[in-house]
Amino acid sequence: MQSTQKKTIYKKIILTTIVLIIYFGIKILQKPISECSNLDIQVFNQDTIKDFNGTNEDKPIYIAYNGCVYDVTPGKDKFYGVEMEYNYLTGKDSSEELNIAGGGIIKNKYKVIGKYNP
Ligand code: HEM
Fold first, then answer.
1. DSSP string over the chain
2. Half-sphere exposure (Cβ direction) of 17: Cα atoms closer than 13 Å
3. What pLDDT, on the 0 to 100 scale, is given for residue 35?
4. What is the pTM of this model?
5. Ligand 1 geometric centre to CA of 101 (Å)
6. Cβ(61)–Cβ(73) under 8 Å?
7. For residue 65, what are the β-bridge partners?
8. Residue 29, pLDDT score
9. Could you tell me if the CB of 75 is within 6 A of ligand 1?
């Protein structure tokens, strides 16, 4: 193969690699951006969400995760009620913990009732 042909191929490979790195880089950076930010629903912040942590029997239990607020009250007796294993995730933004484990379950299992903006 002629060296100019080789150079053209190398250039194409390098260009494709750069485009792929930029594409996936943007995708990864965009991930934490809220999936709920564009929805026209009630907005919570760290003050307004904190009472929804199971301590008040009359109130539902909420968890903020990646910008969305989920009503996890149906899981109260098993997971989120006071003294249950995952109560520590309620009434606040638990994205950090849920991005390690459990976030997928929350997303599939519970209803979004608001968006979170600290
Ligand atoms: C950063 C650590 C962890 C977090 C934040 C986390 C969070 C969660 C969440 C949010 C759920 C969904 C509960 C629901 O259905 O509403 C879940 C389910 C579950 N987790 Fe974890 N988890 C963690 C670590 C662990 C570990 C280390 C174990 C086991 C040794 C474990 C065992 C389970 C089991 C068995 C379920 C399913 C329970 C069921 O559906 O009956 N988790 N977790």
1. --HHHHHHHHHHHHHHHHHHHHHHHHHHHHTTS-SSTTS-S-EE-HHHHTTTTTTSTTS--EEEETTEEEE-GGGIIIIISTTSTTGGGTTSB-HHHHTTTTHHHHHHHSEEEEEE--
2. 6
3. 82
4. 0.77
5. 7
6. yes
7. 68
8. 65
9. yes
